[in-house]
What does this fold into?
Amino acid sequence: MNNIKTELYPQAIRGGGKKSEAYKKARRALIAELISGVTGLLLAGFIFGHLILEGTMLFGKDLYEVVAYYMEHPLPLAQISAFSIGILFFVHFVYASRKIPARLYERKRMMEIGLSIKKAKKRWSQPKSDIMLRRHRETSLWIWQVRTGMIVLACGAFHLFLVTWNIFTDMGYADASGLTAKIASSRVESGLWILYLVLGISVVAHLAIGLYRLAVKWISDTWFNRRWAYLLCTVIFWFYVILCIAGVAALAGKLTLIEIPVGDLLIRS
It folds into this structure.
């Protein structure tokens, strides 16, 4: 066996030294894998916190205003976050997109494989197909990660633009500037609730699948097997999907669990 082809080492040749082209390709692939993994983890941590902070709207606009105020005062955390997350988002896309089929033919083929897997049974039972398929969790999750990644790229870039515009300008609101419940609610009530639902569910799915695949790739089958990784990521997915839907409903003024009095915590000038 002269050639070894895997996802991480696309064309590694046995017997090559550190100066060989095969070694350099494998090293570049490993570095790219580490960068996409680390940036993905950082973005996942941000999303966890972001959705929880947005979820404070479930406990009243006053609490949301307090959280938003202290995100900008006394330190400009919102401004720093918008800038740093924008960079992380771009870097993660560049290094993770190498796994996305680049050609139209390859994308069509990926869609065909996805449909075939969906229709397939647990046993090999596709005599008329040019490739024999059966249900396979890892392949299905990868396909859904690519699909949700494309949605997150489009909707997430638009959301980042809106939030950055919101943070650094008053967006045309004379009596409100920066992060406020009024501006956040107006975005949702203007019809963007559809975008935020699609973005929220897609980013949570992308995040959960990404965490699962990272666990399988780096720590699974050691002290943390893939069964527990899949269970944990499934719990994370459903928790944040429910939180996202409830948060969008709260921003639209359709849902409030309980009003929490905040007293004099909010001092907006």
User: Anything to note?
Assistant: Residues 1-9 have pLDDT under 50 and may be disordered.
